[in-house]
From TrEMBL:
Residues 46-143 form the Methyltransferase domain. One of its GO terms (biological process) is methylation. GO terms for molecular function: methyltransferase activity. The keyword Ligase does not apply. This is Methyltransferase. It comes from the Bacteria. The lineage of its organism: Bacteria, Bacillati, Actinomycetota, Actinomycetes, Streptosporangiales. Gene3D superfamilies: Vaccinia Virus protein VP39. Coiled coil: none annotated. Pfam families: Methyltransf_25 (PF13649). Keywords: Methyltransferase, Transferase. Transmembrane segments: none annotated. The keyword Methyltransferase applies.
């Protein structure tokens, strides 16, 4: 059995390995939650897209305790980890690449915001466009998408794109000074070796919940898809290098 305390320990370890790729991860979380708070809603309804084990969702609820946060992911193991650690959150199993995913959310009103961190770049442009269109259908007018991710500048500005990556890489080198935490693969190998995750690991393998590369890493890909989906304004609210917080406002 995966206990509450063990789940919290594994998520703390997850957060550390994520920070190895994102030394400004907590700053980006803070900026994102600031934007949700700036909506000035006493009880916002927020959808966390590709929530993983719920790191962002939990921070949102800590800051905005009257919020309703619906945390969506397709990975059975990460969802099981989040459910054991954060009983106050609502976790939903859904694949954002499959049309109709929003029906599983059980919404009783339009959402005020959708948020995501380091997740949507895994979705190909072919799947991203209908996903954003479906998302627009469940957000209220003026609702926000807040997407924190590594998003590179367009290929038409290759020098800027190179400098953005360099700024991010240099900050990472400064922060860790050669002493990096365990990486993504090491974390997953450790989880797979823990008997508490045996059933969830089998379920994950059966579901094929694996990533196969960065499918939509260009900022222009996301901006174009969002505008076509009916988001009237897009812009970067926070940025260091190619690590940015993209905001889009629904018509």
């Amino acid at each position: 059995m995966l206990t509450h305390d063990a789940a919290l320990d594994w998520i703390a370890r997850w957060d550390r390995q994520q920070e190895g790729y994102l030394p400004d991860r907590e700053e980006r979380f803070t900026a994102l939650i600031d934007a949700v708070e700036a909506l000035d809603r006493p009880d916002p309804l927020v959808i966390d897209l590709g929530c993983g084990p719920g790191s962002l969702s939990a921070r949102l609820l800590d800051r905005l305790p009257k919020a309703t946060v619906i945390s969506v992911d397709a990975d059975p193991l990460l969802l099981g980890l989040g459910r054991a650690a954060y009983p106050r959150l609502t976790f939903v199993s859904a694949d954002l690449r499959r049309p109709g995913w929003s029906r599983s959310l059980g919404l009783d009103r339009p959402a005020d915001a959708a948020v995501s961190t380091t997740a949507l770049h895994w979705i190909s442009e072919e799947d991203l466009r209908p996903m954003y269109a479906e998302l627009a259908g469940v957000l209220r007018p003026g609702g926000l998408l807040l997407n924190g991710d590594h998003l590179d500048s367009d290929d038409t500005t290759p020098a800027i794109a190179r400098l953005e990556r360099a700024v991010h890489d240099r900050e990472t080198e400064r922060r860790f000074a050669g002493d990096r935490p365990e990486d993504w693969r090491q974390w997953w190998d450790a989880v797979a070796a823990d008997p508490a995750f045996a059933d969830l690991h089998v379920e994950r393998v059966t579901a094929g919940a694996h990533h196969h590369g960065s499918e939509s890493h260009l900022l222009s890909t996301h901006v174009g898809a969002l505008r076509d989906a009916g988001f009237r304004e897009t812009g970067t609210l926070w940025q260091r290098g190619n690590n940015r917080l993209l905001c889009a406002i629904r018509d």
